[in-house]
Amino acid sequence: MINAKDIDIRYLRFLRSWKNLTTKELAFKLGSEKTLIDALEDGEEVDFPNSLLNEISRFYDVDEEGLLLKSNINNREPLFLRDNEDDIKDKIVDSEKVKQQRMAMNLSQTKLSELSGLTLSTIKNVETERTNLTEENAKILASYFGIDIKKLYKTKKRNTVVIAFHNNKGGSGKTSLSVNVAATLSEIYNKRVLFIDTDGQRNASEFFDHRAYHYPMNFYTSFVEGIDVRECIQPTRFKNIDVVYSSYEIGKINGGILQGLSHKEQRFSMISKSLIEQGAYDYVIVDFSPALDAFNYSLLNGCDELIVPVTPHRHAYQAIGEMIQEVSSVNQFTDRLNILGLIYTNHHATKQVSGITYDLIKTNYNDLFIPPFIRQDAAMEKASYLFQAVCEYQKDSKAQKDLNEICKNIINRIESRSK
After folding, report:
1. Which ranges constitute the DSSP H helices of 209-351?
2. Predicted pLDDT at 233
3. Comparing C-alpha atoms, which of 278, 359, 252, 366 is closest to residue 79?
4. Which pLDDT score is estimated for 225?
5. Are 31 and 60 in contact (CB under 8 A)?
6. Structure confidence at residue 145 (pLDDT)
7. pTM
8. pLDDT number for residue 83
9. Alpha-carbon distance 286 to 324, whole Å?
C-alpha cells in the first residue's frame, strides 16, 4: 500500500488536465472509484494499492517514480543545523559547542572530567580555547555527549548575502526567476541557499511543497511575532536549498498590523540577524510581492542586494526607475542596499516589443544589466506547470543555459564587492 502523502499531487492534477479529463472520467478509464481519485488529488492521507499507481503511470505513459515526491525531506535537518564534511574547519573543536553540551547536561567541568575520563585541565583548556582537543579526545567527548564528532568541530562561516527579487509591477516573472536562480545556484554552482517567500500569493512556497500551508511556522509568524526566522526554516527536495514558507495572512500586515509592531522598519533585519551572523548560507533569496508599500520597505531594509526582474512589457520596464528611487529611499535609513542588477527574461527574438525593451535596457541601464537575457523557452513554461525548476526538467534547455551564465555573473558581482 502507498499513502497519498507520498504522491506529487500537483503532477497528477497537471497530467489529468493535460488529458482534459474529469476525475470521474479518469476513474472510469482506470477501473477505479471516483472517491479514491478525488481523495488522492486532494492530498488526503489515505492508503491505496500499489497497482493503482502502476495503472496511473501506464495510462499517462510516465515513469512510476516520477509520480512520487522527489525525496523524503521530513526527516532531514535544515542546512543551518547540518555540519557537512566540507564545512568542518581543520578539525578545531568549538569551545562554545562543548560548553553548550556540558551545560545542557547540567554538568560542571569537574563532573564532566570524572564521567568522560578526560583531565580537568583538558576540559578547561578547550573551553577557553587555549588548546585544541586531539582527535582521540574529541571522539571520547563526542561519545560521552552522545553526538557525532562533527557536531563538536568549528564550521566554516559563510558571508551570507541577502538578495531581494522585487519589481513593483505584476507580471514581471519575479517568482519564476527567483526559484530558478535559487535552483541554479544550488544545483549547478553548489551554493547553499535559503529561500524566503514573503508574497501572500504563495506561488514560490507551492513550488517547493504543495502542502506548504500545513506549516504553522511561516514568514508571517516570524515577522509579526518577532521570532528568529531560523525557527521557521524547512528543508526542501533540493539538498542545498531550505525555505521559509509564506502565508495567505501576509496580506493583513499592511492592513494595520504593521503599524502596531515595534521597530517595524528594522523588523526583517531583527528576525534574520542571528541567521546572517551564523553564516550557514551563501545566499538568502527573498521573493517579494509586487508592491511599493510599508511591508516591502521594511523587508528591503534587511537586504544587501536587489535584483529587478524585467519582462518585455512597458510596465515592467517602467518599474526600473521606480525601484531605483525606492532603493535611494531605503538607504536614507540603512545605507545597506545595493542594486545588484536587472535580469531580462522571456525574450523573444522575433517579437518587436522584446527587441525594443532590450534596446531600452542596454541604452539606459547597461551598467545594471546582468547578461545574458533569458530566451523564451517552452522548457521553462513546462517546468513551471510541473512545479519544477528548469534544471530539474531539462538541464540542456536554452533557458537553463542562460540561467547558468546569469548565476555565474551574479556570483562574480557579489564576490567583486567583497574584494
Report:
1. 219-225, 267-278, 294-300, 314-331
2. 95
3. 278
4. 93
5. no
6. 92
7. 0.78
8. 62
9. 18
C-beta atoms surrounding 9 within 10 Å: 18
d(C-alpha 288, C-alpha 268), whole Å: 13
| DSSP calls for 198-223 | --TT-HHHHHH-TTGGG-SSSHHHHH
Contact 316, 365 (CB under 8 A): no
User: 302 and 166, same structural domain?
Assistant: yes
Question: Cα(174)–Cα(290) distance, rounded to whole angstroms?
Answer: 9
Could you tell me if 413 and 285 lie in one domain? yes
Q: What is the pLDDT of residues 222-260, one digit of tens each?
A: 999 999 999 999 999 898 999 999 998 998 898 778 888
Look at the chain and report how many structural domains it folds into: 3
User: For residue 145, what is the domain's CATH number?
Assistant: 1.10.260.40
The answer to whether 172 touches 224, Cβ cutoff 8 Å, is no
In a domain, 77, yes or no: no
Cell match 542546512: residue? 79
Contact yes or no for 218/244 (Cβ under 8 A): yes
Residue 64: which of 73, 74, 51 has the closest Cα? Answer: 51
The label of the residue with cell 544587501 reads 304
Predicted pLDDT at 19: 80
Residue 149 within a domain: yes
Residues 117 and 168 in one domain: no
CB 41 within 8 A of CB 9: yes
Q: Is the peptide bond prior to 372 cis by the omega test (within 30 degrees of 0)?
A: yes
- Classify burial at 5, counting beta carbons within 10 Å of its beta carbon; exposed 0-12, middle 13-18, buried 19 or more: middle
Q: Smallest Cα–Cα separation from 68: which of 146, 118, 27, 10?
A: 10
CB atoms within 10 A of CB 369: 18
Amino acid residing at 414: I
| Distance of alpha carbon 343 from alpha carbon 360, whole angstroms | 13
Q: List the chain residues with pLDDT less than 70.
A: 1-5, 10, 46, 63, 65-66, 68-75, 83-89, 210-214, 419
372: helix, strand or coil = coil
